[in-house]
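PT: before anyone asks, these are the final sequences, not the draft ones from last week. 596 residues across everything. Please model them as a single complex and drop the result in this thread when it's through.
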Amino acid sequence: MKTVVIGVIGADVHAVGNKIIDHVLSSNGYNVVNIGVLSTQEDFINAAIETDAKAILVSSLYGHGEMDCRFFKEKCEEAGLENVKLYVGGNIVVGKQDFNEVEDRFKKMGFDRVYPPGMKIEKALEDLREDIGI
Amino acid sequence: MKPYLLVDFGSTYTKLTAVDLENEYIIGTSKAPTTVETNVLDGYDVAFKRLMHDHPEIKEISGISACSSAAGGLKMAAIGLVEELTVEAAKRACLGAGAIVKIVFSHHMTKREAIKLKEANIDIVLLAGGTDGGNKECIIHNAKKLVDIEIDVPVIIAGNKDANDEIEEIFEESNIEYYIVENVMPKLKKLNVKEAKHIIRKIFIEKIIEAKGIKKAEVKIGEIIMPTPEAVLLASELLSKGYEDQEGYGELMIVDIGGATTDVHTIGEGFPKRTEVILKGLQEPFAKRTVEGDLGMRYSANALLSLVSNYEFKKYFEADDNCDHDIRKSLDRRATNVDFIPLTKDEEEFDKAIAKICCDVSISRHVGHVEVVSTPLGNMYYQTGKDLSDIKYVIGTGGVLINHQDAKKILKQVNKKSDKLLELRPNNPSILIDRSYILASMGLLSQKYPRIALKLMKQYLL
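LR: through. Structure below.
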């Protein structure tokens, strides 16, 4: 069974979506390690090292995601997690911005998959199957 | 009368406590210097004679239990993967079993580290790493390193269970004594140290005691059943929880200031007290012990000035203390002459200041901390470690606290402080002193007679 780490990054306390992601991925055959809300980059990375996770799914609902996610990929590389897939989704930028630009920005930051607001978790599930298998 | 004898082979003194099981009181205590270099029984015999001399009413002993921290105590190495996770879990298993953690390594052990480990004169290695089903590559690498250097002390493997088969193959081909037990962190942040602690105690009883020359004592007193710090931890747990219909004291803390180290034990969950506080980090043990190797009255006295400045040191003197202490010289005197006993009022006052610093700094390290996070929903708080603000009792033990008339004043250092607001320290708890030095003995007694041990602690901790 493949392990994935999920959580809500930064000073963000939105817990509902986090629980839905946990439920959907768990019931579809993934070992979900949920580090919950108010998590730092280090929390994600430490969890991924100990649990040998194949992907990290970062959620952010409060608009500051872009700041919270800066240098995440670099830190993963530093910690030896260069092969771990990085996903991010939610309201990840301030205000309403063209999503194509946002996606581009986050991909440049090293994220493998970037999801716009309102995206269903089933899409991420499909991508996970493609990226890391079951 | 049915006298039962409790023996603690300490690093400096061998201490005896005689308890009457029938009438449930402490008949008497005695002590004599520990004699590990020659025969540990010599010191015991002297102490025993003293006890018999002072209490001729003792005709025969109905039973004996003993613990030991002699010959340097139980020294361990804790090895894990991530510092805040499996390394921390491994450390807590060692500390909870009454050991001193001498060596700590994280991630992949290097050749240099492995050599350092072999030369460090430790008694047991605890090897952890990875959650169950998680990373197994690191712990296998570290197991191989231990075999490569032919480590000559027992190794306990308490990591990712998926790696156990492979690790067993690695160790089977060597002459190393190894034990495989449950993972100390089977799931992320979940602490599981029971089995590891159990095996540490077993190795301590079967091997370490012998290696340290304390086994000789067993012909006279039967099996030495645990390291002394574990006995203290068991005593505090009993005192906190109570036994059957006897109520305990609830959440409590024990501060033990010794010559070389300061131990702090707390019993209690320490969960956040408010809804806007979010708990972070590895799960805390219900009975938690921390040991500060750089905080002590004698051996480690010189280290104090690297922790507090000269200026800060002076703040710990009493307001009415008019002596112009030469801090560096006074500390040095104690570190070079570890048997130093204060004779004058000024020397006593200086010892008091050292004890206050040991108490204050060790509490800062033991208690949980909060951190403020501003969120769009207002301020939230991260809590790392235990919230001990509701602790009801603080109990002082160890030489300086037992003998100092101002012991309670020293222990006031545990309280919440205006300059350390983010530390979750106790809010003005009641302070008790282990005047008769019985805590370790009561931990021993609790193994067979918990009801009596609890009653005596309530009676003798004042």
